[in-house]
Specification:
single chain, 273 residues, alpha+beta, endopeptidase fold (from Nostoc punctiforme), 2 domains, six-stranded antiparallel sheet, two-stranded parallel sheet, 8 strands
Length: 273
Amino acid sequence: MEQPLVPLVPMSHTAHIRSHRKPRRNAPSIAVRAGVAGGVLSTAAVAGASAQAFAAEPVTQTLELPTLTADLATQAAQSADATQQMAAGYQLQAEREAAAEEAAKQAEKDLAKAKKEEARKKAAAEAERKAAAERASRDSERTTLTSTDTTTAPASGSVGTVISFLKAQLGDAYVLGAAGPDAWDCSSLVQAAFKQVGVDLPRVSQDQSMVGTEVSLSNLQVGDILYWGSKGSAYHVGVYIGNGQYLDAANPSKGVVIQDLSGYPATGAVRVL
């Protein structure tokens, strides 16, 4: 079979030059390029869609923010409540501790007061016991003097009257400045005794030591006035009742008593009867 003739296409006058020949593009290259172009377009489309999606997202986030903020506010409120409750608990505990401490202090004060009151009662009871014993002793002393008195004072006369008055005051109290009838000091008792027989003595012991006639302690007679301290500045006086004894308003603890000169020797003596 004869082959058909193919018409000849005239070549460019520069075709024989290699650098002037147009490169041929084959179908696969065009297809690749087309695919690349399509991919680029697809990527652009996706990017555009993504951009639109991203552009829409702030709306969604803006809608969710109030919910998130509300959660945080709730948590903050709960935390504040818990803190407040904790603070209230601490305050209550502090108040309880303060109350307990105050109660303990008050208990200590009450205990100290009770102890002090108990001690006062004991002291008062002891003082009453001693006073009762002293009263009993005085009563006994009075009974003894009444029944067994061996004083050499005369049964009658001025000296006897003085001694009788003095013994009638045994057991009376000693009170500085008092002048009877139930309380005396040393000089008021002596003054009152001698007043019974019409002898007016000075009120104070210093002046009483200056009256009458001075006598020695070795030549005492019943009714002589004894004094302690210097003559003219004596601080105590009593009356000699015989047998080495004298009667005086001694002091607040003894009152009016009879005592022995040996236990408390006098400084001097004067005689007014």
